[in-house]
Amino acid sequence: MSKKDEIIQERIPRHIAIIMDGNGRWAKKQGLARMFGHKQGVTTVHNITEAAAELGIEYLTLYAFSTENWNRPKEEVDALMALLVDTIAKETPTLMKNNVRLLTIGDVNRLPQITREKFLGCIHETSANTGLNLVLALSYSSRWEIIEAAKRIAAEVKAGTLGIDDINEASISNHLTTGGIPDPDLLIRTSGEMRISNFLLWQIAYSELYFTPRLWPEFTTEDLYEAIVDYQHRERRFGKTSEQLKS
Ligand code: FPP
């Protein structure tokens, strides 16, 4: 029996965010170079995106490349950028077939020109799709995003287009690169690490967190269903009491 059969369709999380971790360790376990782990990780991205689209999830945000990842050895960074270009070329037809719209968050201006152009092309091509929104975090970190938002808010206050009293949760959310995207309901991290690693710090204030020891290249659709079932058994109180929620 598949865990999928236990999913309550009416309580599907609207937004799932994933910290895809463990590519390097997976490759090492097989005695392979780290890039093999990233390549296998792309297959997992393909499978999980298709499963999320089929389940009717509205947003799937994947932490594909962090601001801190720029500090990795140049060969790995270059190979990852090339892999992203290759993946976009190969996967765009699948995104179209599954009615998936691609979005990116992060400092995409830091990406090499060819990588940026491929993403912009795919974003344009999929922009009219109405199913799953696949949000790739590229050159992303939460602290970077919060600094950028603070600068923009300060500039608007200085210009007189935003009043100090208009700074609130909604206006801060709207100034983040995720502006317009609902906060994640469920955040999954693979590979057994119990950290958030500078990912969506503002947005996950009330997200349910799910950690699995499974390495990203071996994370299956069955693991995704299990995470969703686990999420559906939790009581989300948003600071209220259990009794308040029931009444
Ligand atoms: C973390 O594993 C993974 C990354 C830094 C990159 C994730 C990239 C992919 C899955 C491939 C491209 C993605 C898309 C969306 C097409 P790690 O290298 O930190 O693993 P380790 O902790 O075991 O070393």
What would the principal axes of the Cα set say about the shape?
globular
Largest sheet: 6 strands, parallel
Reading side by side through the largest sheet, how are the strands ordered? 3-4-2-1-5-6
Tally of contiguous helical segments: 8
**Strand runs, count:** 6
Going by CATH, the homologous superfamily would be: Decaprenyl diphosphate synthase-like
> Which fold name corresponds to the CATH topology?
Undecaprenyl pyrophosphate synthetase
Uncertain runs with pLDDT below 50, 5 residues or more? Answer: none
How many domain units? Answer: 1
Mean pLDDT: 97
Helices and strands, in N-to-C order?
Answer: EHHEHEHEHHEEHH
By secondary-structure content and strand pairing, the structural class works out as alpha/beta
CATH class designation: Alpha Beta
Approximately how much helix is present in the residues?
A: 40-55%
The percentage of residues in β strands lies in 5-15%
Give the topology.
Elements (H helix, E strand, L loop, with lengths): L14 E5 L3 H7 L4 H22 L3 E8 L7 H24 L3 E5 L7 H13 L7 E8 L1 H18 L9 H7 L10 E4 L18 E4 L9 H12 L9 H5 L1
Parallel strand pairs: 1-2, 1-5, 2-4, 3-4, 5-6
Helix pairs in contact: 1-2, 2-3, 3-4
Bound molecules: farnesyl diphosphate.
Can you offer a commentary on this structure?
This protein is of the alpha/beta class and about 250 residues long. Strands 3-4-2-1-5-6 form a 6-stranded parallel beta sheet, with helices on both faces. Helices cover about 45% and strands about 15% of the residues. The protein has one domain (about 10-140, about 185-235): Undecaprenyl pyrophosphate synthetase. The two termini are about 35 Å apart. Helix 1 crosses helix 2 (about 35-55), helix 2 (about 35-55) packs parallel to helix 3 (about 75-95) and helix 3 (about 75-95) packs parallel to helix 4. Bound molecules: farnesyl diphosphate. Farnesyl diphosphate binds near residues 20, 22 and 64.
